[in-house]
Design brief:
Elements: E1 2-5, E2 8-11, H1 14-39, E3 51-59, H2 75-80, E4 104-109, E5 122-127, E6 130-132, E7 135-139, E8 144-148, E9 154-158, E10 167-170, E11 176-179, E12 189-195, E13 203-209, E14 214-216, E15 232-238, E16 241-249, E17 253-261, E18 266-273, H3 275-278
């Protein structure tokens, strides 16, 4: 190989060529390693295991009767619910072992590593003047798709304290708004209330975590016709370890329990909410005095 110097043309020695080639290779490898660290997840990220924590949430004592929601004013909403609907935050299935639906169960402490949000968006629908689901969880940074399935105006208003708040109208059926990037919930927060400023009885609660180990206890809406599933939850795919598991309910508060579980092991636990918490007032809910509410036991 030849090059030009101040004194004319000279030949590079083979040794110089070999050294330069080795340097180029080393530089390329170093650059690739840095890029891999910057763009790819660390080895501990998204760690999954084979441990399972499952169980149910019950009310300890005589189950309180469900209170009805004050649905009125909007004729579409009134026609959608000819019978009084129970306030989801007051439902206890007295005939099914005092089990409690709509409880957000999650690992509060003990999870290590970082977990990327799923690519699929969480779907929150407004149908028959109710939010569906009533309680849900998401991984921080996950997209939220909010849909209006009603031929009436709704307003979607989040009351987040650590995450961005939003307040927008969806005036027609079929309207869809997707929240992503800086507009979605990117910080851990349990729980975020979302309400409708047009219909005071409409509310939903979102648990934002930095990991996917959460569930919501089953209700008559998603028990697949099997009442034994009501009030149950399952946290699967856990790495072995010691965890603090919490159960949050909009009326009864929050309970925690420590659980140690190994690979391939399933631990069953039961959360029991007591009467004192159940008797506490719930200022975020508007109710009417009538007790003629359609019992969820019949559904």
């Amino acid at each position: 190989m030849y090059g030009r110097s101040n004194g004319g043309i000279r030949a590079y020695a083979p040794k110089e060529k070999t050294v330069m080639t080795k340097k180029c290779v080393l530089v390329a490898l170093a650059a690739a390693f840095v890029c891999a660290l910057a763009s790819g997840p660390a080895l501990a990220d998204n760690e999954k295991g084979s441990a399972v924590i499952k169980g149910k949430v019950v009310f300890d004592g005589e189950a309180p009767k469900p209170k009805p929601l004050a649905i009125g004013g909007d004729q579409h909403c009134v026609k959608a619910h000819p019978k009084p609907q129970p306030d989801q935050g007051t439902i206890v299935y007295a005939k099914d072992g005092n089990t409690i639906p709509y409880v957000f169960v999650y690992v509060k402490k003990g999870v290590k590593g970082k977990y990327d949000p799923p690519a699929d968006a969480i779907v929150l629908d407004q149908k028959d003047c109710m939010y569906h689901p009533h309680v849900f969880g998401m991984v921080a940074g996950q997209k939220i798709q909010i849909t209006n399935s009603d031929p009436t105006n709704h307003n979607v208003h989040s009351l987040a304290k650590k995450n961005p708040t939003f307040n927008f109208a969806q005036a027609q059926a079929g309207m869809v708004k997707e929240l992503a990037g800086k507009d979605t919930f990117n910080k851990e927060e349990v729980m975020v209330k979302i309400k409708c400023d047009v219909h005071a009885w409409m509310s939903t609660y979102c648990g934002v975590l930095t990991h996917p180990f959460f569930d919501v206890t089953k209700s008559h809406e998603n028990d697949d016709g099997d009442k034994s599933k009501r009030g149950t939850f399952t946290l699967s795919g856990l790495p072995s370890g010691e965890y603090e598991v919490a159960a949050w309910h909009e009326t009864f508060g929050e309970l925690t329990e420590k659980v140690t579980v190994g690979d391939g092991e399933t631990k069953e636990i039961e959360f029991k909410f007591g009467a004192k918490k159940a008797e506490a007032p719930t200022p975020t809910r508007e109710v009417i005095l009538s007790t003629e509410v359609e019992s969820p036991e019949k559904k």
